[in-house]
Amino acid sequence: METVEPVGGWRIRKSGLVGGLILAAGLLAVGAFFIPASSWVGLGEANAAMAATPAPIDGKRAFGYLETICAIGPRIAGSEANAKQRQMAAEHFRAAGAKVREQAFEGVHPLDGGKVQMANLIASWHPERTRRVLIGVHYDTRPHADEETAPARQRLPFLGANDGAAGVALLMEIANHLTDLKTSWGVDLVLFDGEELVYGRHPNTQGQYFLGSKEFARAYVEEQDRGKPDYQYEAGIVLDMIGGKDLHLPQEPNSLNLAYNLVRDVWSVARQINARSFKVKVGREVMDDHLALNNAGIPSIDIIDFDYPFWHKADDLPKNCSADSLAEVGRVVTAWLARPQRRGRR
Ligand SMILES: [Zn+2]
């Protein structure tokens, strides 16, 4: 039996063991007979023996970035702190050799109806390459620690060390290696704004999710429809809450449904480099920025630890994050980027 319950707007399907097995069996059956037109087609198991070589990711340095970001304070969409973080990241990416652009857009504040200025940040390596992949994270933080039950704790500042800063910090560390990394792709590191400009636990009345990734997807589809751009994204990886201690990264059901082969590729790389936080089992269904990317025809997955005990709590702090977790995910992502690929089917 499965239940879908709204948890701060993330619809989570809790699958029991039986449900998980049925789902896994169903996916196998679907995978055998049906490959979506936009499905990622990587090398898969047949080439699993091909060596995966990660970049020399420095977990301590990544953790330092995480602390620097948290020191800015809460980084809610539309806030000065949010813009400050974006500028800091842009400078870092430029210094690391990227061509950087902002994708500005406007939203409506869910409480007072005022305008909210937001912006995604896109840092591109090898901008001339037409075959591209994107690694995306959200950089805004939730306005309040909604999962706290005591009102006094709900009023504490929500720093989002894992739910926000960890993803940005890891992209900053990955950026340090992208000029030297041997990859055949153009690589875009993307910071999404407005992932959760949401107040309270009733998303229909108090805000919307995924504003940044929806804008990114809308703009990409519009460019494609106009015959521009001449590049295409062949895959997308969204990282969310990948910096907690005791990291658990099962395979997320929407990712399995929408980009099965990409999940298989990434977890295959993880196995090769002995990244033990990547679990070959079906996790909980999560609505996240990968859904908008899939809607735009970019096969995309979400790598997320939804067992993090401080999710949307005041204690989502650096002390509950881990340099080793950041390093492990960074090693898997860079090893996957450096792995020889063939063109995805469209
Ligand atoms: Zn969140």
Automatic annotation (TrEMBL):
The lineage of its organism: Bacteria, Pseudomonadati, Planctomycetota, Planctomycetia, Isosphaerales. Keywords: Acyltransferase, Aminopeptidase, Hydrolase, Membrane, Protease, Transferase, Transmembrane, Transmembrane helix. It holds the Pfam family Peptidase_M28. GO terms for molecular function: aminopeptidase activity; glutaminyl-peptide cyclotransferase activity; zinc ion binding. This is Alkaline phosphatase isozyme conversion aminopeptidase. Residues 120-336 form the Peptidase M28 domain. The keyword Transmembrane applies. The chain crosses the membrane at residues 21-43.
